[in-house]
Amino acid sequence: MAVDAALATVPAPGSAFPDLELPDHTGRLRSLTEIAGGDPLVLVTSRGWWCPKEQRFLRGLVALQDELEIAYSRLAVLSIDPPEVSAAFRAGLGARFLFLSDEERVWLDALGLSETTDTVHHPYRPATFTLFPDLRVHRAYNGYWFWGRPTLEELRRDLREITRAIRPDWELA
Fold first, then answer.
1. Count of domains in the chain?
2. Cα(155)–Cα(67) distance, rounded to whole angstroms?
3. What CATH number is given to the structural domain containing 162?
4. Does a structural domain hold residue 70?
5. H/E run at residue 98
6. What is the arithmetic mean of pLDDT over 55-75?
């Protein structure tokens, strides 16, 4: 898949996030539209399994997964880890959400999310995006510093705002 290098800017609130198609932790190709399935989506870009900050942040997201499942919301993690490594990391965390692999780094630079300070792994810069079902960005969090990552309460707030905007039955008559 050819990627337009002209993108090369981090998707910002109000913009459309590209409909990436990458293998998940099982090796199956998945698009973000398919993953969202008509529901709000939290997309996390991650350095990879080896980073203790990623391990801590993702353990927090595992604590949120039950709520996401019953609240018609989705979560996916994107890293450069190969599918088999992502599968092991996912299992170790007890996660049920999808892990996507950009092992070939097809989208890394096009999204403007290259972690430039890590010259060994050349991973994604940690970021979190809350997306509408049509992949429009609601909010973007720069997680380079750990405190830049969203708290579970901030994610709940974002998902509440998105859900209120997309569900005509939010306010029952």
1. 1
2. 11
3. 3.40.30.10
4. yes
5. strand 98-101
6. 97
Q: CA 124 from chain center: how many Å?
A: 11
Residue 28 lies in a domain: yes
Instruction: Classify residue 173: in a domain, yes or no.
Output: no
**CA pair distance 80, 57, nearest whole angstrom:** 17
- Spell out the residues 6+ positions from residue 39 whose beta carbon is closer than 8 angstroms to its own: 72, 73, 74, 133
Token pair for residue 145? Answer: 């510093």
Q: What is the pLDDT of residues 5-45, one digit of tens each?
A: 444 688 999 999 999 999 999 999 999 999 999 999 999 99
Residue 133 lies in a domain: yes
